[in-house]
Amino acid sequence: MNVKDDPFYEIETILMQLRQQAKTRQRFPQEVWNTIIRLAQAHSIQDVSLRLNISPAYLKRKIKESHEISSLNFREISSPVQACSNMVYVELSSDSGLKAKIQGHPSCLNFLSALFGR
Question: Which class for 76: exposed (0-12), middle (13-18), buried (19 or more C-beta within 10 A)?
Fold first, then answer.
């Protein structure tokens, strides 16, 4: 297999460099974990763990943490303005502080599926 075709090559190189530095040997930056988690979604956790020398249990925990961080919560709110029968008000917020507000005609809800990939 060509090195350029190997999806693990780049992250293996980065991990090798990080493991040699005392400052990052114990704790990898979040961007590195995001890449590792994307690999684990495309390949098995066992393959990723073995190839990158990461405990499978620890990798599973990091994947679970990343899902908890990125999950959205639904919260019903009351509108300060008298709601019209043909208006929709939606507020989304994540645990990480990301917020989105949607206000408009009920047809604006059709765009939510495209926004969230469903």
Answer: exposed
Side by side, the strands of the sheet bearing 99-104 are: 72-74, 88-94, 99-104
Cα–Cα dist 4/50, whole Å: 20
Distance of CA 100 to the CA centre of its chain: 17
pTM: 0.54
Query: Contact at 8 Å (CB) between 48 and 54?
Result: yes
Q: What is the model's pLDDT at position 82?
A: 55
Phi, psi of 28 (to 5 degrees): -85, 150
